[in-house]
């Protein structure tokens, strides 16, 4: 992974936004994870490298990344907003015990409801499918 933040950092540049050291750091930390971290978890990881980084700055950077379409914020019912560096349409599975989140790539089960809503004049902008259950480790 580059020290400039990789593909997420490139999104800032593409939108004409300056890549500050704080933005580059959050991009590096977020881009390397599949864990769908909260802002607090990102802050903990990033502040190990940049102790002066505030949680408020992390939230601001995440809002910017979401506004430019580089990440998705997710309310998965785990108590805090989680951030997904993959903004492409996909579903999620959430463990009800440990809170771990997995990406699922399967045909969108909401497609029929989507078409029905649009036939009734409703403009669908997003479909969230969240499967809840227990992961292998928590079932043991």
Description:
The structure is a single chain. The protein is α+β, with helices and mostly antiparallel strands and about 140 residues long. The chain has two domains: about 5-85, Arc Repressor Mutant, subunit A; about 90-140, 2-Layer Sandwich (Dna Ligase, domain 1). The protein has helices spanning about 5-15, 20-30, 40-45, 55-65, 110-120, 135-140; strands at about 70-75, 80-85, 90-95, 100-105, 130-135. The strands form two sheets. Strands 4-3-5 form a three-stranded mixed sheet, with no helix packed on it. A two-stranded antiparallel sheet has the order 1-2. The N and C termini lie far apart (about 35 Å). The relative contact order is 0.13.
Strand neighbour order, sheet with most strands: 4-3-5
What's the rounded overall pLDDT mean? 88
Give the strand tally.
5
By secondary-structure content and strand pairing, the structural class works out as alpha+beta
In total, the number of domains comes to 2
CATH homologous superfamily descriptor of the largest domain: Winged helix-like DNA-binding domain superfamily/Winged helix DNA-binding domain
SSE order: HHHHEEEEHEH
Give the second-level CATH assignment, the architecture of the largest domain: Orthogonal Bundle
Characterize the overall form. globular
Radius of gyration: 17 Å
């Amino acid at each position: 992974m580059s020290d400039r933040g990789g593909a997420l950092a490139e999104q800032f540049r593409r939108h004409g936004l300056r890549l500050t050291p704080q933005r580059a750091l959050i991009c590096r930390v977020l881009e390397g994870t599949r864990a769908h971290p909260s802002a607090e978890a990102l802050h903990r990881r990033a502040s190990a490298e940049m102790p002066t980084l505030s949680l408020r700055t992390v939230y601001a950077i995440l809002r910017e990344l979401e506004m430019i379409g580089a990440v998705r914020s997710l309310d998965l019912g785990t108590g805090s907003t989680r951030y997904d560096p993959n903004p492409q349409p996909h579903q999620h599975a959430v463990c009800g015990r440990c809170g771990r989140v997995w990406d699922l790539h399967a045909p969108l089960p909401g497609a029929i409801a989507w078409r029905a809503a649009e036939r009734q004049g409703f403009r669908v902008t997003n479909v969230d499918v969240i499967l809840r259950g227990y992961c292998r480790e928590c079932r043991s």
